[in-house]
Amino acid sequence: MKLKSLTKAIAIVSLSTLMTGCFGLSTTAKQGEALVFVKKPLMFGFSGVSDDVKMTGTWFHLWTTSGIPVSITPYQKIEVFNDLATSNKTPIDFDAPIQFVVNPENVWMIIDKYQSVTKWYKLKIKQIYREEVRNYARGKTSDNLMYDASELKLMGEAVRAKVQAVIDEDKFADVTVVRVLIGKANPPKALADEIAETSRQTQRKKTEHQKMLAEKTRKTAERERALADKAYQSEMGMTTEQYLRSRQIENQSLQVQNVTLAIKEGKNVNFMIGDVRIQPVKVMN
User: Whole domain around residue 120: which residue ranges?
Assistant: First the structure.
């Protein structure tokens, strides 16, 4: 009799265990995560995603319940645009990261409807976001998007507002778009190479022109100096030999002045003595 009663009691306990799932498990939410619980009872009770979201820490639950850690830190998705046409028909390449945050208290709704934040983004936001970026870029010139930082900022804010409006219509997504960053646009490689080559040719022409002007200036200065020398020679009634000797004396006088100044400053000056005249040679210490 006692054995039959014991067997009956064990059977009742086992059945209760299967029905309620009383064996416990634990799941940990790391820093920056929230825990969303999905209940799957064997027979009776609530089944589905629970709205009781837990924050960072270790939480115990029934073995028939699974805990899903979900990041509650800002998300960033980067969309890449290649050969995007602008209003002046010049294709450009650029990146456009979008940053958003999920309300931790309501993150369970995204899990319940879309299974994950990543799936929600791909299903509900990705295509709309790309379309808004393309539509805005098509109304601007390539120069606007490549060189105007203020235009990129305006574009980012305009697209952010459009995407936020779409999100606000989704009752299952309590999400805020923090910012849209439009990266500096660049032309495709083939066009960039062409622009670089044009720039090099322009710079080469500019350099050659500057050299030509410098050479022209030098020749003009030499011609003016020669004319001045000739006028001086004529005015003074000098022969060519007398004029050259006069210039030689001027040069020697200048050397003497330089040597005198060097001696006054305490610098060493050596003299080379030849057959006709003394030739000073400066040695600067």
Answer: 75-187
Residue pLDDT, tens place only, 62-119: 777 888 899 999 999 999 998 888 888 888 889 999 999 999 999 999 999 999 999 9
Other residues' Cβ atoms within 10 Å of the Cβ of residue 88: 10
Percentages helix, strand, coil for the chain (3-state, rounded to 5) are 55, 25, 25
* 255 and 224 co-located in one domain: no
- The secondary structure of 78-123, three-state, reads EEEEEEECCCCCCCEEEEEEEEEEECHHHHHHHHHHHCCHHHHHHH
| Residue 226, pLDDT above cutoff 80 | no
Instruction: Give the rounded distance of the alpha carbon of 142 from its chain centre.
Output: 18
Tokens linked to 10: 């064990």
The count of structural domains within the chain is 4
